[in-house]
Amino acid sequence: MDKHINVKLNFIRCLILCTILCIIVQKNHFISPMKKILTSIVICFNLLFFKAQDFEVAPVIMNFDANPGQIQKKKMTIRNHANIKQSFTFNFGDYEINEEGKKIRQAAGTSKRSCASWITVTPNLLELNPNEERTVTVLMTVPKAGFATKWGMIYVQASSEQKGNEVDKQLATGIKVTPRIAVLISQSPKTNKNYKGKIYSLKEFTSEKDSLKTFHVVVENIGDKIFEGNVQLLLADMATAKETKYKPTKNRVFPGEKRTFELTLPNDIPKGKYVLAAILNYGHDSSLEGTQLMVEIK
After folding, report:
1. What is the three-class DSSP state of 47?
2. CA distance 91 to 101
3. Fold (topology level) of 52-187
4. Which H or E element spans position 185?
5. Where exactly are the structural domains of the chain?
6. What's the pLDDT tens digit per position in 13-38?
7. What are phi and psi of 63, to 5 degrees?
8. For every residue of 197-260, which 3-state class applies, written as one string?
9. Domain 197-297 in CATH: superfamily?
10. DSSP annotation of 67
11. Do 52-187 and 197-297 share a fold?
């Protein structure tokens, strides 16, 4: 199912954010009183005016599987929910994934996994009236040597016609609100079947504040395909040999990524010595991977 995203700022949240930002501005001793007033007005204006720049993009995740030397195309729809005419442009970017699974954005072409230069959006400029929607074509042109999995982003950016006094205020304060939506792109050839993952470094990280026993384990994607890693804890009582399985945790893991999974056990486990195992299942007819440690419940 296509995922949709609607860039809408709630009016009350805008007011709260506006108030917070204005307080910060007023406490800045390096800004003159007049500039404080002007800056506060422009901040509030931009935040409240942002609602007029609402738009929607679908889908926001596009997965291509073209083989080397092939061109594959998909459709993307942009809808203008604003009450004004807006123009939309398309720019590209890269990203890397850290151990917490957060996307660290980078300039297009800087990542070794970048596919930014393979992507074309046509038309590359749209002008939409209020409540109008149009579809653009996203082309993935894979070179003959493009055997590896690649990824990147398309930034769909909106801009609206502004009156002269609005532009003057933005120039005077250096503040410009430009809404955009990031569409995640991946490309991995159908012929690429290199799924391979491993799991290791299972350790307890329970603190005094935690209500549950907390463990961390590392899942590393050593293959060349993006996979959905399911990690499940299995607790075996050394005295009775009874095994208990717990609800798995699921995360997407990219090639070359080391993802730390956080897993928990309830606090009502009877006292005793146990073997705790973390089992990784990433599908695609792969064998289960596991790591374990001894735990003692006191």
Report:
1. helix
2. 24
3. Immunoglobulin-like (2.60.40)
4. strand 180-187
5. 52-187, 197-297
6. 455 655 666 676 566 655 666 655 65
7. -110, 115
8. EEEEEEEECCCCCCCCEEEEEEEEECCCCCEEEEEEEEEEECCCCCEEECCCEEEEECCCCEEE
9. Intracellular proteinase inhibitor BsuPI (2.60.40.2360)
10. P
11. yes
Structure tokens at 27: 């406490």
Torsion of CA 239, 243, 247, 252, to 10 degrees: 100
pTM assigned to the model: 0.75
* DSSP conformational letter for 114: B
Which range, of 22-36, 91-105, 110-124, averages the lowest pLDDT? 22-36
On the question of pLDDT at 7 being above 70, the answer is: no
Measured CA distances, 223 to 71, 89, 135 (Å):
24, 35, 35
Residue 109 has pLDDT above 60, yes or no: yes
Q: Residue 88 half-sphere exposure, CB side, CA atoms within 13 Å?
A: 33
Structure tokens that stand for 11 in this block: 């009016």
**What's the confidence (pLDDT) of residue 36?**
53
pLDDT digits (tens, 9 = 90+) for 231-273: 999 999 999 999 999 999 999 999 999 999 999 999 889 999 9
On whether the CB atoms of residues 201 and 212 are closer than 8 A, the answer is no
Secondary structure of the chain: what % helix, strand, coil (to 5)?
15, 45, 35
